[in-house]
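User: Here's a chain of 152 residues. Predict its fold as tokens.
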Amino acid sequence: MEDFKRILYPVALTDISPKVAPYVVTLARQLDAQVHLLHVLRRFDWFVDTYVSDPPEPDFKRIASDFESHVLSQAQRKLDAFEKRHLSGTQIAGRAVVSGTHYKQILNYVESEGIDLIVMGTGSPIQKVMFGSVAEKVSRLATVPVMLIKVA
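Assistant: Prediction complete.
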């Protein structure tokens, strides 16, 4: 059996996240593992390209990019607060807030940081139908084991 010393916890910063955190904390303590936190935002230019057929002047993409930078910094503050509230006493080896396609960013992080195990929550059936399941894609495409925590 593999040693799990680097756990990735993709934090959605939704109501699911605090329900998954205790599992991450318990696993990290029992395995003497370090935890990496990753929060992924969808790129705003995707929304512009998809939904804005004739962007208004001034440069709407630049405005979206500036707004995205602001949202990224806010998300970093929320991730820091989440860590302090739900993961205190856990060895946090890395934390990142990035933008892009959720499952791709998670898989990229796994490769770049040498992650051994991914622990993530699954959304409600309605969320899966409306948005697709990031957890399903990650579990299907990951090269490392994935533990899915079903939250009600």
